[in-house]
Amino acid sequence: MERSHLHQFICAISPLKAEAWEAFEKVWQPYSCKRKTLLTAAGETERYLYFVLEGVQRSYWLTRDDKEATIVFTYPYSFSGIADSFLTQTPSLFYLESLTQSSFLRTTYTQVQELMDRFPAIQSLILKATAFALKGSLERQVELQCLGAEEKFRKLLTRSPQVLNLIPHKYLASYLGLDAATFSKLLGTVRL
């Protein structure tokens, strides 16, 4: 059952023929962790690509004065990990932690690299997944820089209404670049 979610996710990005899918499927191993587990710390190189089966995770950046800026959330059924560190095998600038108890399938950089070398279709899959992630990051950058607080809040709720029930509001406020008071006010006044 776990791998069927992975298969559906992959098929939506770039379907693989049987031989490539079988090789790709074999490299994923189950992994689980408790709530508030630090999966990757700043300064570490991301060794794993995760596929989220259960739970919510967040990536964040820590300022010099220890203020956290949430960059992204992941939840079922999507990839997770510190993508830039994983793809470049360089130290991460970000942290990845589980916000809730979480279950994954995960694979290593070495395994993904070997599969990309053997199967052009897997290399294409990784390229497309990276392109979609970049597209989302650029759209989010525009939202953060160009939209007002209410517009950012509305976009979040339109795109992912379930997050209000999944993710503590302090992290959602951080993700939107808002202080907790502004987020709370919007929560009470904005209706979709």
Structure description:
The protein folds into two domains: 2-133, Sandwich (Jelly Rolls); 147-192. The chain is 51% helix and 21% strand. The chain has nine helices and eight strands. A four-stranded antiparallel beta sheet has the order 1-8-3-6. Strands 2-7-4-5 form a four-stranded antiparallel beta sheet. A hairpin with a 5-residue loop joins strand 4 (57-62) and strand 5 (68-74). The chain is globular.
Written as H for each helix and E for each strand, in order along the chain, the element string is HHEEEEEEHEEHHHHHH
Strand residues, percent:
15-25%
Arrangement of strands in the largest sheet: 1-8-3-6
Total domain units:
2
**In DSSP terms, counting alpha (H) and pi (I) runs of 4 or more, how many helices?**
9
Helix content: 40-55%
Mean pLDDT: 93
Write a compact overview of the structure shown:
By secondary structure, this protein is of the alpha+beta class. Helix content is 51%, strand content 21%.
Key terms:
192 residues, alpha+beta, Jelly Rolls, 2 domains, four-stranded antiparallel β-sheet, 9 helices, 8 strands, 21% strand, globular
